[in-house]
Automatic annotation (TrEMBL):
InterPro entries xref list: RNaseH-like_sf, RNaseH_sf, X-over_junc_endoDNase_Mg_BS, X-over_junc_endoDNase_RuvC
Keywords, comma-separated and alphabetical: Cytoplasm, DNA damage, DNA recombination, DNA repair, DNA-binding, Endonuclease, Hydrolase, Magnesium, Metal-binding, Nuclease
Function: The RuvA-RuvB-RuvC complex processes Holliday junction (HJ) DNA during genetic recombination and DNA repair. Endonuclease that resolves HJ intermediates. Cleaves cruciform DNA by making single-stranded nicks across the HJ at symmetrical positions within the homologous arms, yielding a 5'-phosphate and a 3'-hydroxyl group; requires a central core of homology in the junction. The consensus cleavage sequence is 5'-(A/T)TT(C/G)-3'. Cleavage occurs on the 3'-side of the TT dinucleotide at the point of strand exchange.
Classification via Pfam families: RuvC (PF02075)
Family matches, as Gene3D superfamilies: Ribonuclease H-like superfamily/Ribonuclease H
Single GO BP term: DNA recombination
Enzyme class: hydrolase
Originating gene: ruvC
Protein name: Crossover junction endodeoxyribonuclease RuvC
Gene Ontology cellular-component annotations: cytoplasm; Holliday junction resolvase complex
Family per similarity comment: Belongs to the RuvC family.
Cofactor: binding details: Binds 2 Mg(2+) ion per subunit.
Subunit field text: Homodimer which binds Holliday junction (HJ) DNA. The HJ becomes 2-fold symmetrical on binding to RuvC with unstacked arms; it has a different conformation from HJ DNA in complex with RuvA. In the full resolvosome a probable DNA-RuvA(4)-RuvB(12)-RuvC(2) complex forms which resolves the HJ.
Entry keyword annotation includes DNA repair: yes
Taxonomic source organism: Mycobacterium triplex
Length: 184
């Protein structure tokens, strides 16, 4: 499974691509950070991110995209920018019929380090170790994008089992409702 991890942001948007094999074997394929100047108009900044993501999607052809879920912050403009960048990426994926999964920061930290409150240094150290990288990925946005992709690789089997169980439960509810209706 090829997973694109995205740490969305207007100033710095981390992009990564990993490929998972059997078990917990994950290989880093690419990582980058798209930067946009804060003095540039918002539509231009979003276009820059969109263009970079479109290029990544065309080049790497991921099976799924893992985006960090916008989490409540005190700075509303930061949250808005992060959400807008994530939205641009989700739209690009939807155009190509690529599944998108959103993971919270604590889910990512827990998946990568085993601790949902781990700090950035711990996450970066574990990303370096899991991917057997020669050097720590920098800046932090690159490490975070890789962590998101790793998180999805680790969580995907469980998410698939949950989706299958939910579909089965929905089918059982439908059949039960039909039996009730027929009995009336």
């Amino acid at each position: 499974m090829r997973v694109m991890g995205v740490d969305p942001g207007l100033t710095r948007c981390g992009l990564s691509m990993v490929e998972s094999g059997r078990g917990r074997n994950i290989v880093a394929l690419d990582v980058d950070v798209v930067r946009t100047p804060s003095d540039t108009a918002l539509p231009r900044r979003l276009l820059t991110i969109s263009d970079a993501v479109e290029h990544w999607l065309d080049t790497h052809q991921p099976d799924v995209i893992a985006i960090e879920r916008v989490f409540a912050q005190h700075n509303v403009s930061t949250v808005m920018g992060t959400a807008q960048a994530g939205g641009v990426i989700a739209v690009a994926a939807a155009k190509r019929d690529i599944d998108v999964h959103f993971h919270t920061p604590s889910e990512v930290k827990a998946a990568v380090t085993g601790n949902g409150t781990a700090d950035k240094a711990q996450v970066t150290a574990m990303v370096t170790r899991i991917l057997a990288l020669q050097a720590k990925p920098t800046p932090a946005d690159a490490a975070d994008a890789l962590a998101l992709a790793i998180c999805h690789c680790f969580r995907a089997p469980m998410l698939a089992r949950m989706a299958k169980a939910e579909a089965l439960a929905a089918e059982q509810r439908r059949k039960y409702a039909a039996r009730l209706k027929a009995a009336r």
